[in-house]
């Protein structure tokens, strides 16, 4: 993934001039391991719950669903703790749109649905739920990647967290 592409994936929260491609955990990140539930399964619609522990409040917590950790042509959603809203990354992987008060927001791969999408911080426990409905054209087994960005700009991820089959015939 190029430096510019990764910067775009952070939905404009980091200045492009100061952004660099992340390692699994960059300096300045004080997050524990990021987990997701479910870690595997199949179906057209699911609520994914991303959790982590940290004494530091994250700026963004995200879920990237694609063949690889590239936000282009992906289902890539974030919760911004700065603005307290869900964001869906554009199809080209550059920039994002906020869900706002709409019931749902879509790109070519998926929709994020307001009902069931939540975020909370209790003590040091951070939990974000993303209610996602996949488009029929977004087929096959995809990898689930988690991402967290600290308010200092440190990044953890994208980390492989599981797989999801969009159209398993089981």
Can you offer a commentary on this structure?
This protein is mainly beta. The protein has one helix and eleven strands. The protein has one helix at 3-9, and strands at residues 35-37, 45-53, 58-66, 75-80, 85-89, 96-98, 104-106, 110-122, 125-134, 141-150, 155-165. The strands form two sheets. Strands 6-5-4-3-10-11 form a six-stranded antiparallel sheet, with no helix packed on it. The protein has a five-stranded antiparallel sheet with strand order 1-2-9-8-7, with no helix packed on it. A hairpin with a 4-residue loop joins strand 4 (75-80) and strand 5 (85-89). Residues 1-9 and 11-25 have low confidence and may be disordered.
Number of helices: 1
Proportion in helices: under 10%
Mean pLDDT, as a whole number?
Answer: 84
**Low-confidence runs:** 1-9, 11-25
- Reading the helices and strands in chain order gives HEEEEEEEEEEE
Task: Give the C-alpha Rg.
Answer: 15 Å
List the strand order in the largest sheet: 6-5-4-3-10-11
* Oligomeric assembly: single chain
Instruction: Please summarize the sheet with the most strands.
Output: 6 strands, antiparallel
Helix/sheet category: mainly beta
Query: Which band does the percent of strand residues land in?
Result: over 45%
General form: globular
Distance between the termini: 34 Å
Tally of DSSP β-strands: 11
Keywords summarizing the entry:
single chain, 170 residues, mainly beta, six-stranded antiparallel β-sheet, five-stranded antiparallel β-sheet, 1 helix, globular, disordered N terminus
């Amino acid at each position: 993934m190029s430096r510019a592409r990764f910067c775009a994936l952070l939905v404009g929260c980091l200045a492009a001039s100061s952004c660099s491609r992340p390692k699994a955990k960059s300096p300045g990140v004080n997050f524990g391991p990021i987990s997701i539930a479910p870690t595997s399964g199949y179906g057209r619609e699911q609520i994914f719950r991303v959790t982590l522990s940290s004494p530091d409040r994250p700026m963004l917590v995200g879920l990237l669903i694609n063949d690889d950790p590239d936000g282009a042509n992906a289902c890539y959603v974030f919760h911004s703790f700065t603005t307290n809203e869900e964001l869906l990354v554009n199809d080209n992987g550059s920039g994002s749109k906020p869900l706002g008060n709409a019931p749902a927001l879509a790109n070519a791969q998926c929709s994020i649905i307001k009902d069931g999408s939540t975020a909370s911080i209790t003590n040091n426990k951070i939990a974000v739920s993303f209610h996602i409905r996949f488009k029929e054209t977004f087929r096959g087994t995809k990898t689930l990647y988690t991402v967290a960005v600290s308010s200092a700009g440190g990044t953890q991820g994208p980390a492989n967290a599981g797989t999801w089959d969009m159209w398993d015939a089981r």
